[in-house]
Amino acid sequence: MQKKGAPGKDRIMNKEEYFDTVEQLTLALMYLTRFKDEYGGDNFAWKGYSFEVLNDLIDKDLIRDGKRPSRTKSVYITPEGVEKAKEALEKFGIEE
Question: Fewer CB in a 10 Å sphere around the end CB: N or C, the chain?
């Protein structure tokens, strides 16, 4: 019998939980590695993650692409994305 609660040795994640966790951790990593753009704007991050995850985060308006998504190498983390990233850091016990 599997235990309920956080995944670990005794519980296996289902596919939905897995993708949700990957999204949360990706957003948290983007937040931790954020930088200012040349105009001084905060909360930009490099796009070096799975396009599937990035597209889902864009669809949820947690990050935004630049004016030319195919050429832009960074994304903007929205205020809601910042909050979700901070929640993920807390959830996974990661200090900022």
Answer: N
Q: Is the dihedral of CA 24, 18, 55, 47 positive or negative?
A: positive
Residues 6+ apart with CB under 8 A from 4: 11
- Pair of tokens at residue 83: 């909050």
Average pLDDT, the chain: 88
d(CA 53, CA 7) in angstroms, rounded, equals 20
Instruction: Specify the pTM.
Output: 0.82
Are the beta carbons of 62 and 77 closer than 8 angstroms?
yes
Using CA atoms, how far apart are residues 51 and 28, in angstroms rounded to an integer?
A: 16
Q: Provide the CA 67 distance to its chain's centre, in angstroms.
A: 20
Closest CA to 84 of 21, 33, 13: 21
